[in-house]
Amino acid sequence: MEFNFQQYFNRTFPFWNRITDSQKEEYIQNSFLSNFKKGQFVHDPMGQCFGMLTVYKGQLRVFIQSENGKEVTLYRIDEGETCTLATSCIMDEITFDVFIEATRDSTLVVTNSSYLNRVSEDNVYVQNFIYKQTTEKFSSVMWSMQQILFLSFDKRLASYLYDEVIRTNESSLVVTHDEIAKELGSAREVVSRMLKYFQKEGFVILERGKVEIVNKDAIRKIAIES
Amino acid sequence: MEFNFQQYFNRTFPFWNRITDSQKEEYIQNSFLSNFKKGQFVHDPMGQCFGMLTVYKGQLRVFIQSENGKEVTLYRIDEGETCTLATSCIMDEITFDVFIEATRDSTLVVTNSSYLNRVSEDNVYVQNFIYKQTTEKFSSVMWSMQQILFLSFDKRLASYLYDEVIRTNESSLVVTHDEIAKELGSAREVVSRMLKYFQKEGFVILERGKVEIVNKDAIRKIAIES
């Protein structure tokens, strides 16, 4: 079955009924589906200006990396959500660049940057959508920043575990210490040390590539108490 | 001499020639000058939604604060620049709040939030200006975040000192250790320790409320070398 761009864009983009029929046609001509395997890079700071991405299936992770390889996750992009940072070249206001990787096998709906640049200059509603999406991500980044700057690490780790339990509805989380460290912008050693402390306290049981939460209330209490 | 809002807005806002004459009139009616003394708060997270601010004279500092009072400067707003975060209530996408203080005696041109909300709903160019301004600040915040996360402290402090020397064109900086700590999101003790190390190395001479840079090249070298 062929993918219906017209229908998808109509459902996804508030500007779709603000652009002309010929702009719609051109927009679709300049859009394509792109598949990425779990772990594959969708965009990196050295790469070219890819395009505007909407996640049709899967999930992306947007992160920054220091010279010595330390990663900090800024936010994730779930199904139905749009990411504008892989087309930051069309926004003069964006002067930073990020890594974007697929955290699951993903199918993206991509509109190429050069067309997007043209249509957003012609149509202020398209442009406004791009800036609105970017502003929304600003909020996500501020949240991450505040987590990193202001919370002590036991609290951050507990928040992470508790949020994952709620999100997945599973008490057994399939995740390595390294993955948690990347998520929280910390070192693997720090994560392992804190998890061992949690295990000793009877909050969790650690297995290879797995964290079992056995005392959800205790984890929650650490997460919310200042 | 009376302040000419019409002229000022025409010079400052790219949307000004996109709004109608009656919108212009209303815009001016809903705008006012506001004076703040150095150190005074312009906006805080507990306060109401103030309005869109353009700095006519002076300078503002935008920062966040943890529960235990630690501050991190996100960016500064200089003369001619606009800040939209004191009117974040009109943007659904902004889910965080900030402190804004005057770092010098300042005169601001303010347009109140309720009118701005109305006109930005009626006129996509006004709305687009607000989101563009916010996106620009996103870049500044990312820069701060990367500084905080990725640079070692000697490098961050050296960068700060070197930037101040360039900015003020003075080798003697009037600033307390506490002010530097707030600027860099660090503790005063850490700043004092590193400054003493710089003094011992002959890079700076410390006096009460003052840092004299005596070896600018050495400071620059620390700042730029990885």
UniProtKB/TrEMBL annotation, chains A, B:
Keywords: DNA-binding, Transcription, Transcription regulation. It comes from the Bacteria. GO terms for molecular function: DNA binding. The keyword DNA-binding applies. Residues 151-217 form the HTH crp-type domain. GO terms for biological process: regulation of DNA-templated transcription. InterPro entries: cNMP-bd_dom_sf (IPR018490), HTH_CRP (IPR012318), RmlC-like_jellyroll (IPR014710), WH-like_DNA-bd_sf (IPR036388), WH_DNA-bd_sf (IPR036390). This is CRP/FNR family transcriptional regulator, anaerobic regulatory protein. It comes from Anaerosporobacter mobilis DSM 15930.
